[in-house]
């Protein structure tokens, strides 16, 4: 992390605490001009100065070296989810529940309309997934087995195992997945 990124992160934490540079200066005994230079990436703070700043901001020192995440960036509103709809499969739908594909896991909601399937042939992917049947019942073709899963059932699908989902009922089925790595 360069000085500018470090400075921006310190500034974000400071603003998150609603401190002015002057207030932070009084708490840390670091001059306002030095803090301003640090936040603008014009000065490289000593380890001792970083400790004083982290203590004043009530954050672990390592958090000054990681990307600052805003809470609003972690929330995915129901009306703004990314969706994939497959018209050829009776409007079978995937909705990304995670805000994006960053990180090492994603959450996906799958809606299977009555009498539909996720694919013609079983598919496989590099990651593993855990699925939970939120509503309805589904038939899971997994490897050489065929299993019916009902509301409340869950399954772990290891990497590389062929699988597909089928809804043979007259009601929509809903399945929620955690998948790693993200593949949406």
Automatic annotation (TrEMBL):
Keywords: DNA-binding. It comes from the Bacteria. SMART domains: HTH_XRE. The keyword DNA-binding applies. Residues 10-64 form the HTH cro/C1-type domain. InterPro entries: Cro/C1-type_HTH, Cupin_2, Lambda_DNA-bd_dom_sf, RmlC-like_jellyroll, RmlC_Cupin_sf, TransReg_Diox_bact_type. PANTHER family: BLL2473 PROTEIN, HTH-TYPE TRANSCRIPTIONAL REGULATOR. This is HTH-type transcriptional regulator PuuR. It comes from Paenibacillus pseudetheri. The lineage of its organism: Bacteria, Bacillati, Bacillota, Bacilli, Bacillales. The gene is puuR.
């Amino acid at each position: 992390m360069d000085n500018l990124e470090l400075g921006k992160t310190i500034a974000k934490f400071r603003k998150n605490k609603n401190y002015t540079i002057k207030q932070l200066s009084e708490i840390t005994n670091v001059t306002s001009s030095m803090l301003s230079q640090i936040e603008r990436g014009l000065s490289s703070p000593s380890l001792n100065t970083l400790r004083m700043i982290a203590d004043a901001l009530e954050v672990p020192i390592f958090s000054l070296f990681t990307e600052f995440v805003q809470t609003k960036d972690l929330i995915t509103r129901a009306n703004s989810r990314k969706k994939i709809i497959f018209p050829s499969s009776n409007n079978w739908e995937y909705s990304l529940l995670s805000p994006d594909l960053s990180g090492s896991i994603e959450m996906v909601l799958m809606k299977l309309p009555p009498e539909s399937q996720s694919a013609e042939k079983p598919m496989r992917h590099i990651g593993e997934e855990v699925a939970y049947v939120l509503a309805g019942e589904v038939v899971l073709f997994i490897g050489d087995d065929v299993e019916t899963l009902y509301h409340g059932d869950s399954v772990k699908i290891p990497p590389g195992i062929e699988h597909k989902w089928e809804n043979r009922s007259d009601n929509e089925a809903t399945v929620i997945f955690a998948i790693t790595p993200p593949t949406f």
